[in-house]
Specification:
single chain; alpha+beta; 2 domains; nine-stranded antiparallel β-sheet; two-stranded antiparallel sheet
C-alpha cells in the first residue's frame, strides 16, 4: 500500500472514531425520560403489540357475540366451576372480558359468560330479568328447558358488600390499572341471558354514563331511553350469535347506542309468561274441583252438601300440596338451574329513569 493511501485510510478511521465519541457524549447529556419518549415514538401503538383486538363479532366456545362499533381489546379469559350443579359437581363457565378504549379511557366494556361445549346449559332466567325496580326488563320466553330475557340497569363496581365479582373481570381491571387506563367508577349495563338444552350465554354490555368525565354524577334520562331501545333492537343478533349464525366480517356488528332513536313506550317490564306446567296445574285443579262437586251432588242429591264437601276437599288438597312442596325443598335437585352468575359489582336501581 502506498504511503498516501495509508494516510487516507488512517484519517478515515480517526474521523469515524471521533464521530462516535461525539455521538455518545451527546446522548449521555439527554435526560433519560426524553430518550424513552423518543424511543416510544418510533414504536407502534401499545395495543397493537401487547393486546389482541377484535371488531364486529367475538367468538368463544362455539358461540358468537356481536360487538358495538370500535376496536375491542380482549382481556382476561377464565374458566371457573360456577355453573349449575350436576350432583356434587358444578359445571364450568368460561368468562371473557373485552374493553373499548378512547385514548387511555375505558368507555365501554363487556363480560361474556358461556357454558363449555357438552356441559350443563340449564341456567334458567337471570334474576334481573324479573326485577321491577330496574330501568327495563323483558322476559321473552321461558319453559322447563329454555329461556331468554334481558334487562337494563345501573352498576357500581366498587360497592361494599356487593355480590361476587367474576374472576376474569377482577383480573382485567387490575391489568387495565397496570396499563395506566382510566376505568369508570359506575356503568350502565344491558344484560342478556339465553339458555337452551345445548348452549347458555350471558353477556353484559357496559357503557360509561359520564363519557370519561369523572365530575359528572348524573345519569341522563335520554341515555337510559336510548339503551332501552338499543337492548330491544339488538335482540335478534344476540340470539343468532348463540347459534353461531352471525357473519364474522363485521356486517352483523351492533349499532351505536348513542344514535338510537327513542320510541316512547309505557312498558318497563314484561310480565312473566305462565309456563306450560303452571297452566296444566291450574287446569287440573279446576277439573278436579268440578269433578268432585259433580260426584258429590249425584250421590248425595244435595247442592249444599256437595258444595261443602267440594270446598273442604279443595282446602285439604291445597294444604297437602303445600306440604309436599315444602318437603321436596329438602331434596337436592341433581340438575338445579343456575340463578345468578358473578358479575362486575352491585346491580341496582339507577338515579334516573326513562
Amino acid at each position: 500500500m502506498k504511503r498516501s493511501e495509508f494516510m487516507v485510510w488512517g484519517g478515515a478511521v480517526i474521523a469515524a472514531g471521533g464521530a462516535a465519541v461525539l455521538l455518545a457524549t451527546a446522548l449521555s447529556s439527554v435526560p433519560e425520560p426524553a430518550l424513552v419518549r423518543a424511543t416510544e415514538a418510533l414504536l407502534p401503538e401499545v395495543l397493537s403489540i401487547r393486546e389482541t383486538t377484535v371488531s364486529g363479532v367475538f367468538s368463544t366456545e362455539g358461540k358468537q357475540v356481536p360487538l358495538p362499533p370500535g376496536e375491542w381489546v380482549v382481556m382476561q379469559s377464565v374458566v371457573t366451576q360456577i355453573g349449575p350443579r350436576i350432583g356434587d359437581v358444578a359445571s364450568p363457565v368460561a368468562s371473557t372480558v373485552l374493553l373499548r378504549l378512547r385514548g387511555h379511557q375505558v368507555d365501554a366494556a363487556m363480560l361474556v359468560q358461556v357454558n363449555l361445549p357438552d356441559t350443563a346449559s340449564n341456567w334458567g332466567l337471570a334474576p334481573g330479568c324479573v326485577r321491577q325496580d330496574f330501568y327495563f326488563a323483558h322476559v321473552r320466553y321461558t319453559s322447563d328447558h329454555d329461556s331468554a330475557c334481558s334487562y337494563v340497569t345501573y352498576v357500581t363496581p366498587q360497592a361494599s358488600g356487593g355480590p361476587q365479582v367474576d374472576e376474569a373481570w377482577r383480573l382485567s381491571m387490575q391489568e387495565a390499572v397496570d396499563n395506566g387506563w382510566n376505568v369508570p367508577s359506575r356503568w350502565l349495563a344491558v344484560v342478556y341471558r339465553l339458555t337452551d338444552p345445548i348452549d347458555a350465554l350471558q353477556v353484559r354490555y357496559l357503557f360509561d354514563p359520564a363519557h370519561g368525565d369523572a365530575r359528572q354524577n348524573d345519569v341522563a334520562a335520554d341515555q337510559v331511553a336510548r339503551l332501552v331501545a338499543w337492548s330491544e333492537a339488538s335482540w335478534w343478533k344476540i340470539q343468532f350469535g348463540v347459534r353461531d349464525r352471525l357473519r364474522p366480517k363485521g356486517t352483523d356488528a351492533l349499532a351505536d347506542p348513542a344514535f338510537m332513536r327513542v320510541v316512547p313506550s309505557s312498558r318497563t317490564i314484561a310480565p312473566k309468561p305462565m309456563s306450560r306446567s303452571e297452566l296444566r296445574t291450574m287446569t287440573n285443579q279446576m277439573i278436579g274441583g268440578l269433578t268432585g262437586f259433580t260426584v258429590a251432588y249425584v250421590y248425595l242429591g244435595s247442592l249444599a252438601a256437595a258444595s261443602t264437601l267440594s270446598v273442604a276437599a279443595s282446602v285439604a288438597g291445597s294444604a297437602l300440596s303445600y306440604a309436599e312442596d315444602w318437603a321436596w325443598g329438602f331434596v337436592p335437585d341433581p340438575a338445579a338451574k343456575l340463578h345468578e352468575l358473578p358479575g362486575i359489582g352491585l346491580e341496582q336501581p339507577g338515579p334516573s329513569r326513562p
